[in-house]
């Protein structure tokens, strides 16, 4: 038995054809029938008198969008009392002002007291206006809305309950949006309350229970409860330690402290949670979210249906592992413990991980084989991505060598003094290197990225969250297990976390309180999506690897084909592979040009002609669609330029500031190219493939950055560090340095301590 407006009714839901509620947020996109409950705080204005028309219009727009997608939408709304209060107050003020003017004969009116307005009268006056407003708004989207007013007896009486059910089903069948509200004009009088000044408020918890009841009765897939708070918190919202609960499970009520209710209504969060849990038990998924925040209210409903992390999601299935928020906190605490270790201890962890990569080679390759077999059977990966996914004995050996390089070079990374200044007598300032904090590295199809990035994070004392592609799930799992085994050597196992939950990348990019830097490793589309989704978190990386090789008139015949072959064919899927080959015009129809073309044909490289190159040919290869193309395969573009200056201009216009190369024996021309090309890596007579942290002697890299601040090019340990300032004084105060003070600034540069070069 459950009470609704103080009248008990049986709460056994009708049998549901669609089964249980959704387990994960990502499944909400499949919701067909949806109830949206609008609390009084969402519908009413801040002055508690009248409706928030802008918010209401935005909600109607979102509901209409979902309705036009083929979903069945229902709205349970508050607002009649507030709308009626606005109308009645206006009438009373007008009436009083007229009477007072007639009796006093004066132009100036005295202060007029507004009598207490009875809530049922407000509801009666406001209900028709509220519905007329909904009808006008939905008409803009060619959608019809219908009003349904219910009372307690409609649920208490079995026949009325079935009639209501039939009416709702018929409206949904005709593609009409039902607008449902309690018939507050005829309900029993409530207890006196001061929620709305001058009004005895109809308890909002009625609409919470009503929405839950309707959702279960109508076999609804999703109930969205909009209020004036972001969702459910583990302590009262607004308190210092309050954290939004992403997923709430039945049985978690004991761990939650409920705060005060919203500014209007009596339901409060406790009533919403009880209603949500009852609906969840009946097979309806529930999300409680904020419908008043100006930054999100315009898309809160559609975001929820798309499965984005908005509000609190109620789920009956509790995952075995920690949530991503908990993993972020674990990585933060583990990273700080890692940074507190001695450099030798961090190096020992990395050496241990390098040993595990070779010792556990068979287990790693077996897990990788499973990933490859699943990817091939499903046919979801292109050949270049399959190559990235594949691990081998030689790859593991190279990884181990790279990790040992990182360990050897990490002895003097964290806590290194890079500047010392004597501010005044006995007042010394130091600038020292420190970890950035918590890194989020998102990578696709490259399990070898996991130990590389982990080693760099360990060496730099950073906590690490890893999000790998599902195509490498088995490989990532064992590599992460080995990483944590190595970290356990000094009790910092939690510093590196692998996100295994069904977390969307876009949701991870919103965790600005947990993550300090995002590093994407994958396709240009992935990088662009992350750069777009990141909210308040810096992103390090490059969106594209459009690398150029310019062949000058003074190029060596022997060097040209070797460098071009290596740049394009050695690993065409890499971001540092050649994509556009620039040829000086004077080299056309020369033996050198013929050798280049012959070599590319032998290597089965598909050639696309740039506009100028095509104009020189009678029968040219297919003309390139765009000069800003990253092929990632055995394809490249050939374009003609008239000079090194034009080559530089072409690179600046169509390149991605990644890696660009000149092949020439003319030192003056080479230096011009090196100094004028504005890319992260610029080479002379060397393959583009040297643009790599391992080949640069960094041991490994977290990625190649084309940004212009903090780090650029292959990013190793140095790029994962920032600095802090340490000031050591002895009773120093700023007032001592004033015009009439006793001390003066010295600002003397002091020698740096000797670095450990072993």
From TrEMBL:
GO-annotated biological processes: L-proline biosynthetic process
Domain Aspartate/glutamate/uridylate kinase, chain residue ranges per copy: 32-290
Enzyme Commission number(s): 1.2.1.41, 2.7.2.11
UniProt domain Aldehyde dehydrogenase: residue ranges: 324-588
Reactions it catalyzes: L-glutamate + ATP = L-glutamyl 5-phosphate + ADP; L-glutamate 5-semialdehyde + phosphate + NADP(+) = L-glutamyl 5-phosphate + NADPH + H(+)
Pfam families membership: AA_kinase (PF00696), Aldedh (PF00171)
Gene Ontology MF annotations: ATP binding; glutamate 5-kinase activity; glutamate-5-semialdehyde dehydrogenase activity
Similarity comment: In the C-terminal section; belongs to the gamma-glutamyl phosphate reductase family. In the N-terminal section; belongs to the glutamate 5-kinase family.
Subunit structure: Can form homodimers/multimers.
Protein name: Delta-1-pyrroline-5-carboxylate synthase
Lineage: Eukaryota, Metazoa, Chordata, Craniata, Vertebrata
Gene giving rise to this polypeptide: Aldh18a1
């Amino acid at each position: 038995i459950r009470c609704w407006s103080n009248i008990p009714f049986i709460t056994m839901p009708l049998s549901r054809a669609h089964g249980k509620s959704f387990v994960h947020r990502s499944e909400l996109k499949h919701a067909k029938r949806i109830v949206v409950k609008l609390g009084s705080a969402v519908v009413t204005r801040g002055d508690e008198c009248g409706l928030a028309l802008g918010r209401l219009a935005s909600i109607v727009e979102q509901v209409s969008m979902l309705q036009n997608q083929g979903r069945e939408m229902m709205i349970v709304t508050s607002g009649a009392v507030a709308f009626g209060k606005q109308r009645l107050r206006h009438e009373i003020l007008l009436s009083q002002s007229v009477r007072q003017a007639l009796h006093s004969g004066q132009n100036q009116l005295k202060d007029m007291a507004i009598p207490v307005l009875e809530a049922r009268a407000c509801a009666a006056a406001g209900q028709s206006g509220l519905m007329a407003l909904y009808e006008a708004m939905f008409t803009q989207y060619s959608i019809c809305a219908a009003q349904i007013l219910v009372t307690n007896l409609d649920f208490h009486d079995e026949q009325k309950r079935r009639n209501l059910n039939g009416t709702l089903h018929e409206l949904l069948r005709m593609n009409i949006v039902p607008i449902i509200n309690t018939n507050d004009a005829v309900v029993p009088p409530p207890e006196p309350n001061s929620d709305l000044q001058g009004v005895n408020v109809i308890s909002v918890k009625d609409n919470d229970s009503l929405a839950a009841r309707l959702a279960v009765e109508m076999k609804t897939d999703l109930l969205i409860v909009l209020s004036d708070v972001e969702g459910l918190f583990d302590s009262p919202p607004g308190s210092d330690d309050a954290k939004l609960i992403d997923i709430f499970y039945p049985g978690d009520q004991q761990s939650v402290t409920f705060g005060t209710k919203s500014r209007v209504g009596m339901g409060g969060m406790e009533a919403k949670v009880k209603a949500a849990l009852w609906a969840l038990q009946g097979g309806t998924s529930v999300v409680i979210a904020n419908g008043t925040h100006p930054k999100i209210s315009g898309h809160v409903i559609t975001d929820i249906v798309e499965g984005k992390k908005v509000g609190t999601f109620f789920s009956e299935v509790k995952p075995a592992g920690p949530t991503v928020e908990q993993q972020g906190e674990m990585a933060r605490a583990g990273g700080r413990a890692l940074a507190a270790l001695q450099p030798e201890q961090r190096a020992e962890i990395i050496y241990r991980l390098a040993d595990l990569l070779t010792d556990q080679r068979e287990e790693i390759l077996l897990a990788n084989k499973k990933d490859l077999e699943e990817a091939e059977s499903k046919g979801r990966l292109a050949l270049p991505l399959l190559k990235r996914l594949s691990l081998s004995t030689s790859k593991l050996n190279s990884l181990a060598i790279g990790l040992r390089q990182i360990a050897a070079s990490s002895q003097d990374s964290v806590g290194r003094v890079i500047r010392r200044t004597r501010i005044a007598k006995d007042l010394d300032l130091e600038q020292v290197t420190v970890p950035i904090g918590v890194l989020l590295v998102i990578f696709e199809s490259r399990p070898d990225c996991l130990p590389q990035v982990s080693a760099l994070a360990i060496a730099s004392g950073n906590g690490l969250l890893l999000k790998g592609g599902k195509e490498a799930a088995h490989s990532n799992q064992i590599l992460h297990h080995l990483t944590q085994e190595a970290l356990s050597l000094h009790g910092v196992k939690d510093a590196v976390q692998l996100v295994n939950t069904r977390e969307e990348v876009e949701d991870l990019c919103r965790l600005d309180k947990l993550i300090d830097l995002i590093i994407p490793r994958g396709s240009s589309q992935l990088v662009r999506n992350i750069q777009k989704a990141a909210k308040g978190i810096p992103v390090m990386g490059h969106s594209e690897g459009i690398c150029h090789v310019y062949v000058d008139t003074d190029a060596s015949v022997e060097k040209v084909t070797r460098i071009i072959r290596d740049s394009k064919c050695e690993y065409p899927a890499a971001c540092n592979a050649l994509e556009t080959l620039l040829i000086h015009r004077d080299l056309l129809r020369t033996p050198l040009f013929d050798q280049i073309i012959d070599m590319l044909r032998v290597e089965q490289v598909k050639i696309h002609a740039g506009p100028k190159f095509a104009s020189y040919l009678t029968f040219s290869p297919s003309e390139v669609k765009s000069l800003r193309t990253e092929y990632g395969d055995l394809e490249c573009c050939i374009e003609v330029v008239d000079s090194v200056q034009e080559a530089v201009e072409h690179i600046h216009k169509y390149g991605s500031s990644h890696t660009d190369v000149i092949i020439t024996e003319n030192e003056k021309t080479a230096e011009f190219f090196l100094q004028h090309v504005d890319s992260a890596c610029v080479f002379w007579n060397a393959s583009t493939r040297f643009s790599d942290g391992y080949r640069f002697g960094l041991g490994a890299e977290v990625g190649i950055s084309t940004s212009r601040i903090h780090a650029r090019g292959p990013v190793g340990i140095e790029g994962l560090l920032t600095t802090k300032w340490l000031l050591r004084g002895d009773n120093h105060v700023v007032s001592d340095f004033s015009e009439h003070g006793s001390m003066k600034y010295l600002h003397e540069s002091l020698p740096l301590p000797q670095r450990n070069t072993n």
